[in-house]
Amino acid sequence: MDRPVIRDLVPIDRVWSRLEKVERRLYEATTSENPFLTRIAQHLLGAGGKRYRPLLAQVAAELGPHDGDDPVEAGVAVELVHVGSLYHDDVIDEAESRRQVTSVNANWDNTVAILGGDFLLARASEVAAPLGQEAVALLARTYAALCEGQILELQLGDDLEHGAADYYRVIELKTASLIRTSARLGAIAGGASPEAVEAASRWGHEVGMVFQMADDVLDLIATDEYLGKPAGSDIGEGTFTLPVLHALEGPDGGKLRDLLAPRRPYGDDTVEQVIALVRSGGYIERALAETRERIAAADAAIAGLPSSAITGVFSRLGEYLLDRVSEARP
Ligand code: GRG
Question: What's this model's pTM, rounded to 2 decimal places?
Fold first, then answer.
């Protein structure tokens, strides 16, 4: 069966008309008195991006009665944090491209990318300020979590002895935190009840974890064509994700250590052998089973809410994120 289009999964016109406003506001919020800084700040906005975080904010806002500007501003703030963090991430990774265009660091240089990212983060705070103290504090905690996640990932780089618990902590901080915040801020801006805000937050946390776990599995199984880069790039960077970490603890752990213990850069054949051992040991299936448990936990988080069109939407969005994996399998 064809993969559903995300628009069909969210059949709520208000959500999509607010998202159109988010798009306009993203450009307003990233305009500087200096036209060069405006160009830098808008470089990735114009290149696309899936806008999942503002979409989640609009969906979560449907848990409350407000269909005004506050949910729109919540969506703008979370996308600006996301894009700002991508600027910094591309400096750290020395990335050449992002969203199918030249990355900011490669197009200009690291200084420009760092300042552009800082500007986007600053504008995110400014956009969130009228939403209130809770919103600003939530965003500030989320910037800190992104930094903590990135630092922990750096600390664990090339380390063959850490386990799944460390992996889960990294992805909770660097990815799930902002996805959770997108749902939480949207629910707050929509005027949802405290119970609904908590439910949206728990749902966002679980779905955010699944989002990164699915990405990490894809790096090990998808075609090069789908990924736009060779499979196994995480291994090449010394980042060992859940299936590899489980495999290191299994019967092939010794063979894997022999392959991975020598210093990087690994040859293509080494990466291929590691991937082959991970696949044949059933560790892709094991990681996917763990994502399915989290999708069930996400569903459980919203199960206590009064049943409505929006609870069905939450459920379908979770499934959609996981469907990417079967779509990308060779
Ligand atoms: C100063 C806020 C701040 C951060 C610095 C660099 C850093 C610390 C954190 C990096 C966090 C990061 C890039 C996590 C990965 C998140 C992720 C899954 C990105 C890809 O998201 P998509 O697929 O991308 O939604 P698009 O382009 O579609 O928006």
Answer: 0.95
